[in-house]
Design brief:
Blueprint: H1 5-14, E1 23-25, H2 28-38, E2 44-48, E3 61-64, H3 70-78, E4 81-82, E5 85-86, E6 90-94, E7 100-109, E8 114-120, E9 135-140, H4 148-158, H5 162-181, E10 184-195, E11 198-201, E12 205-208, H6 217-220, H7 230-237, E13 241-244, E14 249-253, H8 256-268, E15 275-278, H9 285-296, E16 302-309, H10 314-327, E17 334-340, H11 343-353, E18 358-360, H12 364-373
Parallel strand pairs: 14-16, 16-17, 17-18
Antiparallel strand pairs: 1-6, 2-3, 2-6, 4-5, 7-8, 7-10, 8-9, 10-11, 10-12, 13-15
Bound molecules: guanosine-5'-diphosphate (GDP) and manganese (II) ion.
Guanosine-5'-diphosphate is lined by residues 45, 47, 53-56, 61, 63, 93, 95-96, 98, 101, 124-125, 190-191, 202-203.
Length: 375
């Protein structure tokens, strides 16, 4: 789960990491009132709350000088759509006086099998363009935690300005602590700004492991405040294990392993999977029908249903497909491969229905080719 900046900053504040005193606003009027309260008579910064980076470059972060029309600038930002995500809220903060912009983050290094702490003195919006070597990092032993000597190493190797060092020695361990305590897979501060009053986290990017949300009810409660993708929302409501991808061949299968192989085989056949959807073991007609509806709600040119019947019975799967076809209008071909328990019965049901969209396939490779070849 990706948190909004203001939510990440709430976690930062609780972890003792300095953040500006901000308020969330959803209308231009609320923004003007918030500015009057948090920065009376001084410059404010208005920041679009969307769960994606690059807001600065997209015009989603604006400094409003003292006396200027906060509501007008707020209206401009609220009208934006950043990387396809409409701006629903703004964070209104006192504008910071930035002397230097640093970058600090903790994430997983999957190859090393442990957390990695990253620090750079070349932070800000151009962090990706920073010269090679500007980013320094250390692996953190999960049992020993971030050692004091590692923090000192990082701070000196990154070349933070002398006035920032003392603050960094205090702040960076808190960031690591938060990463662990929140079960995060990413905590990122960019920019970590050096201001006349010391280091301040001007941005917050926090990703929390969905599987750990059950032990963080406070973070899980943030779910309701953000707009999910409508297709993902539908899948979640139906209890389906769904991941959106960027291709256009819809994929439905039973069992994570089978679905992953199906993605591979479709790619091998020259197609690009639109999603991962695992209906799980023992799925009946109802689950199949909602899976098909979820996948058809996205931009797909074909759907591949790949079922290996064990506990799952292929006749029930066939029933689910036919039920979904009766409920929703289907304009794209649906390639079905049924194998295993009651596959013969399932195939016979599909054949008897003579639905113009349904095509049955023998074997996984043929199914993938048929789904990939549809133009
Ligand atoms: P991002 O582009 O989505 O990462 O959004 P950020 O929150 O990082 O803001 C983008 C840029 O806006 C930062 O790199 C800063 O240069 C600038 N910025 C953000 N907050 C302030 C502020 O309080 N004062 C000033 N002067 N600039 C700010
Ligand atoms: Mn940023």
């Amino acid at each position: 789960m990706d948190l909004f900046e203001y939510q990440g900053k709430e976690l930062f504040a609780r972890a003792g990491i300095p953040v500006p005193a901000g308020r969330v606003a959803r209308t231009p009027e609320e923004a003007a009132a918030a500015a009057a309260q948090v920065v009376p008579g001084a410059a404010a910064v208005l920041k679009a709350q969307v769960a994606t980076g690059g807001r600065g470059k997209a015009g989603g972060v604006k400094v409003v000088p003292a006396g200027a029309d906060v509501a007008a600038v707020a209206a401009e930002i609220l009208a934006l759509s950043i990387k396809g995500e409409p701006v629903g809220a703004l964070l209104v903060e006192p504008a910071a006086e930035i002397e230097a912009e640093y970058y600090a983050a903790v994430t997983f290094d999957r190859r090393a099998g442990s957390a990695r702490f990253l620090l750079s003195s070349a932070g800000g919006m151009e962090v990706e363009e920073a010269p090679e070597g500007a980013m320094v990092s250390v692996l953190v032993d999960p049992l020993l935690g971030l050692a004091a000597y590692q923090v000192r190493d990082l701070v000196f190797a990154a070349g933070l300005a002398p006035p920032a060092r003392k603050d960094a020695l205090v702040l960076l361990p808190k960031l690591y602590r938060l990463f662990v305590d929140a079960d995060a897979s990413l905590v990122e501060i960019n920019p970590l700004a050096l201001t006349p009053s010391g280091l301040v986290a001007l941005d917050a990017k926090v990703t929390v492991d969905d599987s750990a949300l059950y032990r963080h009810p406070d973070i899980a409660a943030y779910h309701g405040t953000r707009r999910l993708d409508p297709q993902e929302e539908r899948a979640a409501a139906a209890g389906l294990n769904f991941v959106k991808l960027d291709g256009d061949v819809g994929i439905i299968g039973n069992g994570a392993g089978l679905v992953m192989s199906t993605l591979d085989v479709v790619s091998q056949a020259g197609g690009r999977p639109a999603n991962f959807l695992d209906v799980g073991g023992g799925a009946g007609a109802e689950v199949l029908a909602s899976a098909l509806e979820v996948v058809l709600a996205g931009p797909v040119r074909s759907v591949l249903v790949n079922i290996f019947g064990g506990i799952t019975r292929c006749d029930r799967v066939a029933g689910g497909i036919l039920e979904a076809l009766g409920r929703t209008r289907v304009e794209v071909p649906i390639v079905v491969r049924l194998e295993g328990t009651n596959a013969t019965e399932g195939r016979a049901m599909l054949a008897a229905a003579h639905h113009p969209s349904v095509r049955t396939a023998d074997g996984m490779m043929e199914a993938a080719r048929m789904a990939a070849e549809v133009r």
